Amino acid sequence: MLKILIIYAHPDPQASQVNRLMLAQAAALSHVTVHDLYACYPDFFIDVARERQLLNAHDLIVFQHPLYMYSCPALLKEWFDVVLTKGYAHGDQAALAGKIWRSVITAGAAESAFSQSGYNRYPLEDILQPFELIAALCQMQWQPPLVLYWARKAAAATQHQHAKTYRQWLEQPLLDDQSSVEMHHE
Asked: Which domains does the chain have, with CATH numbers?
Protein backbone atom coordinates (compact mmCIF):
# COMPACT_ATOMS: atom_id res chain seq x y z
CA MET A 1 0.00 0.00 0.00
CA LEU A 2 1.25 3.48 -0.87
CA LYS A 3 2.14 5.72 2.06
CA ILE A 4 0.20 8.97 1.67
CA LEU A 5 1.09 12.34 3.17
CA ILE A 6 -1.65 14.97 3.31
CA ILE A 7 -0.20 18.44 3.63
CA TYR A 8 -3.17 20.42 4.88
CA ALA A 9 -3.11 24.20 4.76
CA HIS A 10 -6.11 26.14 6.02
CA PRO A 11 -5.61 29.32 8.07
CA ASP A 12 -9.09 28.98 9.62
CA PRO A 13 -9.80 25.24 9.78
CA GLN A 14 -12.84 25.64 12.05
CA ALA A 15 -14.55 27.62 9.29
CA SER A 16 -14.49 24.66 6.88
CA GLN A 17 -16.92 21.88 7.72
CA VAL A 18 -16.08 19.92 4.56
CA ASN A 19 -12.32 19.99 5.19
CA ARG A 20 -12.91 18.73 8.74
CA LEU A 21 -15.05 15.89 7.33
CA MET A 22 -12.38 15.03 4.76
CA LEU A 23 -9.57 15.04 7.33
CA ALA A 24 -11.57 12.82 9.68
CA GLN A 25 -11.98 10.28 6.87
CA ALA A 26 -8.28 10.47 6.00
CA ALA A 27 -7.02 10.25 9.59
CA ALA A 28 -8.86 6.94 10.04
CA LEU A 29 -6.57 5.27 7.48
CA SER A 30 -3.36 3.72 8.79
CA HIS A 31 -1.33 4.42 5.62
CA VAL A 32 -2.22 8.14 5.64
CA THR A 33 -0.38 10.85 7.57
CA VAL A 34 -2.23 14.15 8.00
CA HIS A 35 0.15 17.09 8.45
CA ASP A 36 -1.53 20.39 9.34
CA LEU A 37 0.85 23.22 8.40
CA TYR A 38 -1.01 25.97 10.27
CA ALA A 39 -1.11 23.88 13.45
CA CYS A 40 2.63 23.12 13.19
CA TYR A 41 3.86 26.52 12.02
CA PRO A 42 1.61 29.34 13.27
CA ASP A 43 4.67 31.61 13.17
CA PHE A 44 5.54 30.56 9.57
CA PHE A 45 8.98 29.28 10.68
CA ILE A 46 9.08 26.00 8.78
CA ASP A 47 11.32 23.15 9.92
CA VAL A 48 12.67 22.29 6.47
CA ALA A 49 14.54 19.17 7.60
CA ARG A 50 11.39 17.77 9.22
CA GLU A 51 9.30 18.53 6.15
CA ARG A 52 11.76 16.79 3.86
CA GLN A 53 11.84 13.73 6.14
CA LEU A 54 8.06 13.54 5.86
CA LEU A 55 8.19 13.87 2.08
CA ASN A 56 10.92 11.25 1.76
CA ALA A 57 8.93 8.76 3.85
CA HIS A 58 5.80 8.91 1.67
CA ASP A 59 4.94 7.87 -1.88
CA LEU A 60 1.99 10.11 -2.63
CA ILE A 61 1.70 13.74 -1.55
CA VAL A 62 -1.71 15.38 -1.28
CA PHE A 63 -1.92 19.15 -0.98
CA GLN A 64 -5.31 19.87 0.59
CA HIS A 65 -6.34 23.51 0.86
CA PRO A 66 -8.96 26.08 -0.01
CA LEU A 67 -8.50 28.15 -3.13
CA TYR A 68 -7.25 31.56 -1.92
CA MET A 69 -7.00 34.41 -4.42
CA TYR A 70 -6.55 31.92 -7.28
CA SER A 71 -3.81 30.10 -5.41
CA CYS A 72 -3.12 28.52 -2.02
CA PRO A 73 -2.97 29.98 1.49
CA ALA A 74 0.20 31.94 2.28
CA LEU A 75 1.81 29.31 4.52
CA LEU A 76 1.61 26.66 1.81
CA LYS A 77 3.24 29.06 -0.67
CA GLU A 78 6.00 29.69 1.88
CA TRP A 79 6.31 25.91 2.32
CA PHE A 80 6.79 25.44 -1.45
CA ASP A 81 9.44 28.18 -1.50
CA VAL A 82 11.56 26.88 1.40
CA VAL A 83 11.05 23.10 1.18
CA LEU A 84 11.05 22.40 -2.56
CA THR A 85 14.34 24.13 -3.30
CA LYS A 86 16.89 23.51 -6.00
CA GLY A 87 19.34 20.90 -4.82
CA TYR A 88 16.63 18.95 -3.01
CA ALA A 89 13.47 18.79 -5.11
CA HIS A 90 14.86 19.86 -8.48
CA GLY A 91 18.11 20.65 -10.20
CA ASP A 92 20.99 18.28 -9.46
CA GLN A 93 18.85 16.42 -6.95
CA ALA A 94 15.26 15.32 -7.45
CA ALA A 95 14.33 13.70 -4.14
CA LEU A 96 10.65 13.61 -5.07
CA ALA A 97 11.03 12.19 -8.58
CA GLY A 98 8.38 9.59 -9.29
CA LYS A 99 6.23 10.49 -6.28
CA ILE A 100 2.61 11.39 -6.96
CA TRP A 101 1.14 14.88 -6.46
CA ARG A 102 -2.56 15.49 -6.07
CA SER A 103 -4.24 18.75 -5.19
CA VAL A 104 -7.46 18.52 -3.18
CA ILE A 105 -9.19 21.88 -3.38
CA THR A 106 -12.24 23.51 -1.85
CA ALA A 107 -13.46 26.44 -3.90
CA GLY A 108 -15.75 29.21 -2.71
CA ALA A 109 -17.57 29.60 -6.00
CA ALA A 110 -19.78 27.47 -8.21
CA GLU A 111 -18.17 25.48 -11.01
CA SER A 112 -19.83 27.80 -13.55
CA ALA A 113 -17.76 30.72 -12.16
CA PHE A 114 -14.64 28.94 -13.42
CA SER A 115 -15.16 29.35 -17.16
CA GLN A 116 -14.63 31.94 -19.88
CA SER A 117 -18.15 33.22 -19.28
CA GLY A 118 -17.87 33.02 -15.48
CA TYR A 119 -16.59 35.78 -13.26
CA ASN A 120 -13.25 33.97 -12.71
CA ARG A 121 -12.74 33.88 -16.52
CA TYR A 122 -10.74 30.64 -16.49
CA PRO A 123 -11.41 26.99 -15.70
CA LEU A 124 -9.94 25.83 -12.42
CA GLU A 125 -7.55 23.52 -14.29
CA ASP A 126 -5.96 26.64 -15.82
CA ILE A 127 -5.77 28.41 -12.46
CA LEU A 128 -4.03 25.39 -10.93
CA GLN A 129 -1.33 25.22 -13.63
CA PRO A 130 1.37 26.70 -11.34
CA PHE A 131 0.93 23.68 -9.04
CA GLU A 132 1.13 21.31 -11.99
CA LEU A 133 4.32 23.09 -13.07
CA ILE A 134 5.85 22.73 -9.58
CA ALA A 135 5.05 19.00 -9.71
CA ALA A 136 6.71 18.74 -13.12
CA LEU A 137 9.77 20.70 -11.95
CA CYS A 138 10.12 18.20 -9.09
CA GLN A 139 9.62 15.30 -11.53
CA MET A 140 6.47 14.25 -9.68
CA GLN A 141 3.49 12.56 -11.32
CA TRP A 142 0.55 15.00 -11.46
CA GLN A 143 -2.92 13.62 -10.85
CA PRO A 144 -5.96 15.70 -11.71
CA PRO A 145 -7.30 17.59 -8.69
CA LEU A 146 -10.26 16.60 -6.55
CA VAL A 147 -12.41 19.69 -6.16
CA LEU A 148 -15.49 20.65 -4.22
CA TYR A 149 -16.96 23.75 -5.80
CA TRP A 150 -19.14 26.10 -3.77
CA ALA A 151 -17.78 24.37 -0.67
CA ARG A 152 -19.29 26.71 1.92
CA LYS A 153 -22.74 26.46 0.40
CA ALA A 154 -22.70 22.74 -0.39
CA ALA A 155 -25.47 20.79 1.27
CA ALA A 156 -24.46 18.55 4.17
CA ALA A 157 -25.19 15.47 2.06
CA THR A 158 -22.89 16.77 -0.69
CA GLN A 159 -20.11 17.47 1.81
CA HIS A 160 -20.42 13.98 3.32
CA GLN A 161 -20.41 12.38 -0.13
CA HIS A 162 -17.32 14.38 -1.09
CA ALA A 163 -15.53 13.22 2.09
CA LYS A 164 -16.53 9.63 1.29
CA THR A 165 -15.23 9.97 -2.28
CA TYR A 166 -11.96 11.34 -0.89
CA ARG A 167 -11.58 8.40 1.50
CA GLN A 168 -12.32 5.89 -1.27
CA TRP A 169 -9.61 7.46 -3.39
CA LEU A 170 -7.16 7.44 -0.45
CA GLU A 171 -7.88 3.73 0.03
CA GLN A 172 -7.06 2.92 -3.61
CA PRO A 173 -5.45 5.98 -5.20
CA LEU A 174 -4.11 4.26 -8.32
CA LEU A 175 -6.92 1.83 -9.05
CA ASP A 176 -8.34 4.04 -11.77
CA ASP A 177 -6.97 7.57 -11.87
CA GLN A 178 -9.63 8.96 -14.19
CA SER A 179 -12.70 7.59 -12.45
CA SER A 180 -11.46 8.87 -9.09
CA VAL A 181 -11.64 12.48 -10.24
CA GLU A 182 -15.04 13.79 -9.26
CA MET A 183 -15.83 17.45 -9.28
CA HIS A 184 -18.80 17.98 -6.96
CA HIS A 185 -20.96 21.03 -7.17
CA GLU A 186 -24.37 22.24 -6.18
From this structure: 4-184 (3.40.50.360)
